[in-house]
Amino acid sequence: MSVASPLVADLAKHLRSRILAGEYAPEAKVTESGLAAEYGVARPTVRSAIELLAGEGLLVRSPFAAVRVPAIPLSERDELVTVLRFTEDLALDRIRSQQPDVRELRQAASGSLHGMLATLVRVSGSPRLEPIHRRTTFELMLLTQQHPGELASPDDAAAHATMRSFADAVATERFPEASALLEQLQDLRDGGVRAGRRAASSRSRR
Fold it and tell me: pTM of the prediction?
C-alpha cells in the first residue's frame, strides 16, 4: 500500500474528523471541485484524500455516481462489533507469540478507548488485521454518530483504569489477565451501544 503525501494525509484527517463529527449527513454528496475550492488545493490531492477515506469506509465512490457519505444501517452494528472483537483477540494472540515492542500501548492508555484498541492491533504487527480493524472502527464510530438516539459512544474516562491495567498486563506478559481485561474493554466499548439500543427499545414500547 502506497504512503499518502503529507498534504493528502492532512486533508484526509480533516475530512475524517468532519465526517465523524456529523458535519456531513448520511448520503451527503462530496465533490472534488467543491473540496478543492474550499481547501485551496488541487483536485488530484482531493481525489487521493477521497480514495483514502473510501478505503476506511467513510466515503463511497460508485461508478457514474457522486462521492457520498455512507448511511450505515443500525442492523450492521452486531457484525461490526464481532469483526472488531475477532481482530483484537487475534492481535493479542499475535503479541503473545511474537512479543513485539508494546511500549506504545502504555502511552495509548491515557487516550480514547477506540484509540487504545486500535493501538493494540497496530503493535501486533499484522499487515492484515490493522486495515480491517481501522475501517471497522471508523464504520462503528460513524454508525454511532448517525444513530445518536439509539447508540452511545464509549465512556473513555470510565475505561482509563482498565486500559492502564491491560497495558501493564500485556507489557509484563501476564496474558491470561490481559485476555480478561481485553474482554472488559470490549464490553465497555460495546456496552454503550447495547444500552442505547435498550433505551430506544424501552421508549418504543411506551
Answer: 0.88
